[in-house]
Amino acid sequence: MITTFVSPNCGPRKSEKGIAPVIDTLVIHYTGMMPTRRALDWLCDPISQVSAHYLIDEDGTTWRMVEEADRAWHAGVGAWRGWRDINSRSIGIELSNPGHDYGYRAFPNAQIETLIELTNGILERHPIPARNVVAHSDIAPSRKIDPGELFPWGQLAANGIGVWPGQVSAAVSEQDAAQTLQAIGYDVAENKFKTVLSAFQRRFRPACFDGVLDHETRSCIAAVHELVAETPPTD
Protein backbone atom coordinates (compact mmCIF):
# COMPACT_ATOMS: atom_id res chain seq x y z
CA MET A 1 0.00 0.00 0.00
CA ILE A 2 1.25 3.45 -0.94
CA THR A 3 0.18 6.51 1.03
CA THR A 4 0.12 9.90 -0.69
CA PHE A 5 1.89 12.67 1.22
CA VAL A 6 2.15 15.57 -1.20
CA SER A 7 5.35 17.57 -1.54
CA PRO A 8 5.16 21.02 -3.13
CA ASN A 9 8.80 20.65 -4.19
CA CYS A 10 8.26 19.65 -7.79
CA GLY A 11 7.45 21.00 -11.22
CA PRO A 12 7.15 20.09 -14.88
CA ARG A 13 9.89 18.08 -16.53
CA LYS A 14 12.18 20.12 -18.79
CA SER A 15 13.72 19.60 -22.19
CA GLU A 16 17.47 19.22 -22.53
CA LYS A 17 19.49 19.71 -25.71
CA GLY A 18 16.20 20.52 -27.43
CA ILE A 19 14.90 17.02 -26.71
CA ALA A 20 11.67 16.48 -24.82
CA PRO A 21 12.20 14.66 -21.51
CA VAL A 22 11.76 10.91 -21.36
CA ILE A 23 11.66 9.09 -18.02
CA ASP A 24 14.53 6.68 -18.61
CA THR A 25 16.44 6.75 -15.30
CA LEU A 26 15.80 5.57 -11.75
CA VAL A 27 17.89 7.01 -8.92
CA ILE A 28 18.08 5.33 -5.52
CA HIS A 29 19.00 7.37 -2.43
CA TYR A 30 19.09 7.07 1.32
CA THR A 31 17.64 9.81 3.52
CA GLY A 32 20.66 10.23 5.78
CA MET A 33 18.46 11.13 8.72
CA MET A 34 16.21 9.51 11.28
CA PRO A 35 13.46 9.07 12.28
CA THR A 36 11.66 8.48 9.01
CA ARG A 37 8.96 11.02 9.85
CA ARG A 38 11.62 13.72 10.00
CA ALA A 39 12.80 12.79 6.51
CA LEU A 40 9.23 12.72 5.21
CA ASP A 41 8.53 16.19 6.59
CA TRP A 42 11.82 17.53 5.20
CA LEU A 43 11.12 16.21 1.70
CA CYS A 44 7.73 17.94 1.82
CA ASP A 45 8.90 21.23 3.34
CA PRO A 46 9.13 24.13 0.84
CA ILE A 47 12.15 25.43 2.76
CA SER A 48 14.18 22.31 1.97
CA GLN A 49 13.93 22.63 -1.82
CA VAL A 50 14.30 18.83 -2.07
CA SER A 51 11.87 16.00 -2.70
CA ALA A 52 11.56 12.55 -4.22
CA HIS A 53 8.81 10.59 -5.88
CA TYR A 54 8.77 7.92 -3.17
CA LEU A 55 10.04 7.29 0.35
CA ILE A 56 10.24 3.77 1.78
CA ASP A 57 10.52 3.21 5.53
CA GLU A 58 12.57 0.38 7.01
CA ASP A 59 9.39 -1.62 7.62
CA GLY A 60 8.28 -1.19 4.00
CA THR A 61 5.78 1.61 4.58
CA THR A 62 5.75 3.71 1.42
CA TRP A 63 4.80 7.30 0.70
CA ARG A 64 4.30 8.93 -2.71
CA MET A 65 5.28 12.60 -2.52
CA VAL A 66 5.49 13.56 -6.19
CA GLU A 67 3.56 12.10 -9.11
CA GLU A 68 5.76 10.20 -11.54
CA ALA A 69 4.80 12.53 -14.39
CA ASP A 70 6.31 15.47 -12.49
CA ARG A 71 9.90 16.52 -11.86
CA ALA A 72 10.96 15.88 -8.26
CA TRP A 73 14.04 17.62 -6.86
CA HIS A 74 16.18 14.69 -5.74
CA ALA A 75 19.21 14.39 -8.03
CA GLY A 76 20.78 17.84 -7.77
CA VAL A 77 23.92 18.66 -9.72
CA GLY A 78 25.17 15.60 -11.54
CA ALA A 79 25.27 13.71 -14.82
CA TRP A 80 24.72 10.27 -16.29
CA ARG A 81 25.44 9.12 -19.82
CA GLY A 82 25.85 12.68 -21.03
CA TRP A 83 22.63 14.06 -19.54
CA ARG A 84 22.83 16.72 -16.81
CA ASP A 85 19.25 17.51 -15.84
CA ILE A 86 18.74 14.13 -14.23
CA ASN A 87 15.64 15.34 -12.36
CA SER A 88 13.82 15.83 -15.66
CA ARG A 89 14.39 12.27 -16.84
CA SER A 90 14.27 10.25 -13.64
CA ILE A 91 12.22 8.78 -10.84
CA GLY A 92 13.76 9.24 -7.39
CA ILE A 93 13.28 6.80 -4.51
CA GLU A 94 14.47 7.58 -0.99
CA LEU A 95 15.15 4.77 1.48
CA SER A 96 14.99 5.59 5.16
CA ASN A 97 18.46 5.03 6.61
CA PRO A 98 20.55 7.04 9.08
CA GLY A 99 23.34 7.33 6.53
CA HIS A 100 27.07 7.40 7.08
CA ASP A 101 26.96 10.40 9.43
CA TYR A 102 24.38 8.99 11.83
CA GLY A 103 24.92 5.23 12.08
CA TYR A 104 24.78 3.73 8.60
CA ARG A 105 23.29 0.25 8.66
CA ALA A 106 22.07 -2.51 6.39
CA PHE A 107 18.74 -2.11 4.64
CA PRO A 108 16.09 -4.44 6.17
CA ASN A 109 14.52 -7.16 4.05
CA ALA A 110 11.06 -5.58 4.31
CA GLN A 111 12.41 -2.34 2.88
CA ILE A 112 14.24 -4.03 -0.01
CA GLU A 113 11.33 -6.31 -0.85
CA THR A 114 9.05 -3.28 -1.03
CA LEU A 115 11.61 -1.44 -3.16
CA ILE A 116 11.76 -4.36 -5.60
CA GLU A 117 7.98 -4.47 -5.90
CA LEU A 118 7.70 -0.70 -6.35
CA THR A 119 10.55 -0.60 -8.87
CA ASN A 120 9.15 -3.41 -10.97
CA GLY A 121 5.96 -1.39 -11.32
CA ILE A 122 7.93 1.71 -12.31
CA LEU A 123 9.87 -0.27 -14.92
CA GLU A 124 6.60 -1.48 -16.40
CA ARG A 125 5.37 2.11 -16.75
CA HIS A 126 8.54 3.73 -18.09
CA PRO A 127 11.29 2.78 -20.60
CA ILE A 128 14.10 2.58 -18.03
CA PRO A 129 16.91 0.26 -19.17
CA ALA A 130 18.90 -1.69 -16.60
CA ARG A 131 21.98 0.48 -17.19
CA ASN A 132 20.03 3.53 -15.98
CA VAL A 133 19.07 2.16 -12.57
CA VAL A 134 21.69 4.07 -10.59
CA ALA A 135 22.85 5.19 -7.19
CA HIS A 136 22.86 8.84 -6.20
CA SER A 137 26.63 8.42 -5.92
CA ASP A 138 26.82 7.28 -9.55
CA ILE A 139 25.41 10.53 -10.88
CA ALA A 140 27.10 12.84 -8.33
CA PRO A 141 30.31 11.09 -7.20
CA SER A 142 31.92 14.28 -5.90
CA ARG A 143 28.95 15.09 -3.66
CA LYS A 144 27.17 11.90 -2.66
CA ILE A 145 27.91 8.37 -1.42
CA ASP A 146 24.37 7.06 -1.02
CA PRO A 147 22.80 4.57 -0.88
CA GLY A 148 26.25 3.24 -0.01
CA GLU A 149 28.21 0.04 0.14
CA LEU A 150 25.59 -1.89 2.14
CA PHE A 151 22.90 -1.51 -0.48
CA PRO A 152 22.13 -4.93 -2.07
CA TRP A 153 22.51 -4.19 -5.78
CA GLY A 154 23.07 -7.86 -6.52
CA GLN A 155 19.70 -8.75 -5.00
CA LEU A 156 17.98 -6.15 -7.17
CA ALA A 157 19.73 -7.43 -10.29
CA ALA A 158 18.60 -10.96 -9.45
CA ASN A 159 15.07 -9.58 -9.58
CA GLY A 160 15.57 -7.93 -12.98
CA ILE A 161 16.48 -4.47 -11.68
CA GLY A 162 19.75 -2.84 -12.71
CA VAL A 163 23.00 -4.61 -13.56
CA TRP A 164 25.48 -6.62 -11.55
CA PRO A 165 28.80 -7.87 -12.94
CA GLY A 166 29.58 -11.51 -13.48
CA GLN A 167 32.98 -13.08 -13.89
CA VAL A 168 35.10 -12.10 -16.90
CA SER A 169 38.57 -13.16 -17.96
CA ALA A 170 39.55 -9.78 -19.38
CA ALA A 171 40.28 -6.50 -17.64
CA VAL A 172 40.43 -2.98 -19.03
CA SER A 173 43.89 -1.47 -19.28
CA GLU A 174 44.88 1.38 -17.00
CA GLN A 175 44.95 3.65 -20.05
CA ASP A 176 41.38 2.73 -21.05
CA ALA A 177 39.80 2.78 -17.58
CA ALA A 178 38.59 6.38 -17.64
CA GLN A 179 37.14 6.10 -21.14
CA THR A 180 35.36 2.87 -20.18
CA LEU A 181 33.86 4.42 -17.05
CA GLN A 182 32.63 7.26 -19.27
CA ALA A 183 31.07 4.70 -21.63
CA ILE A 184 29.29 3.07 -18.69
CA GLY A 185 27.78 6.44 -17.81
CA TYR A 186 30.03 8.19 -15.29
CA ASP A 187 31.04 11.82 -15.75
CA VAL A 188 34.82 11.64 -15.76
CA ALA A 189 35.20 15.14 -17.21
CA GLU A 190 33.76 17.05 -14.24
CA ASN A 191 34.93 14.74 -11.42
CA LYS A 192 38.35 13.57 -10.29
CA PHE A 193 39.14 10.11 -11.63
CA LYS A 194 39.79 8.65 -8.17
CA THR A 195 36.42 9.98 -6.98
CA VAL A 196 34.60 8.39 -9.90
CA LEU A 197 36.50 5.16 -9.40
CA SER A 198 35.55 5.05 -5.72
CA ALA A 199 31.89 5.60 -6.63
CA PHE A 200 32.10 2.76 -9.13
CA GLN A 201 33.69 0.47 -6.54
CA ARG A 202 31.14 1.39 -3.87
CA ARG A 203 28.42 0.36 -6.32
CA PHE A 204 29.94 -2.69 -8.00
CA ARG A 205 32.75 -3.85 -5.65
CA PRO A 206 31.63 -2.68 -2.21
CA ALA A 207 34.20 -4.69 -0.26
CA CYS A 208 36.80 -2.05 -1.18
CA PHE A 209 36.14 1.45 -2.52
CA ASP A 210 39.52 3.10 -2.02
CA GLY A 211 39.71 4.59 -5.51
CA VAL A 212 42.73 2.44 -6.43
CA LEU A 213 42.73 1.00 -9.95
CA ASP A 214 43.82 -2.53 -9.09
CA HIS A 215 43.31 -5.60 -11.27
CA GLU A 216 40.06 -6.61 -9.59
CA THR A 217 38.60 -3.17 -10.22
CA ARG A 218 39.75 -3.19 -13.84
CA SER A 219 38.09 -6.59 -14.30
CA CYS A 220 34.91 -5.30 -12.70
CA ILE A 221 34.88 -2.28 -15.03
CA ALA A 222 35.20 -4.63 -18.00
CA ALA A 223 32.36 -6.82 -16.71
CA VAL A 224 29.98 -3.90 -16.20
CA HIS A 225 30.91 -2.44 -19.57
CA GLU A 226 30.01 -5.73 -21.24
CA LEU A 227 26.53 -5.48 -19.73
CA VAL A 228 25.86 -1.93 -20.94
CA ALA A 229 28.03 -1.59 -24.07
CA GLU A 230 25.22 -2.30 -26.52
CA THR A 231 24.11 1.34 -26.27
CA PRO A 232 26.73 4.11 -26.24
CA PRO A 233 26.35 7.21 -24.04
CA THR A 234 24.52 10.24 -25.40
CA ASP A 235 26.78 12.69 -27.21
Q: Can you give a write-up of this model?
A:
By secondary structure, the chain is α/β, with parallel strands linked by helices. The protein has two domains: 162 residues, Peptidoglycan recognition protein-like (Lysozyme-like), CATH 3.40.80; 66 residues, PGBD-like superfamily/PGBD (Muramoyl-pentapeptide Carboxypeptidase, domain 1), CATH 1.10.101.10. It is 29% helix and 12% strand. The protein is built from seven helices and eight strands; from the N terminus they run βββαββββαβααααα. Helix 5 runs parallel beside helix 7. It is globular. The C terminus is likely disordered.
How would you summarize this macromolecular structure in one to three sentences?
The chain is of the alpha/beta class. It is 29% helix and 12% strand. Mean pLDDT is 95; it is low at 231-235.
How many structural units, i.e. domains? 2
The helix tally amounts to 7
Shape: globular
CATH architecture of the largest domain: 3-Layer(aba) Sandwich
Strand % is 5-15%
Q: Can you say what the CATH homologous superfamily of the largest domain is?
A: Peptidoglycan recognition protein-like
- CATH fold label of the largest domain: Lysozyme-like
Q: Indicate the mean pLDDT.
A: 95
Helical percentage: 25-40%
Strand order of the largest sheet: 1-5-4-7-3-8
The CATH top-level class label of the largest domain = Alpha Beta
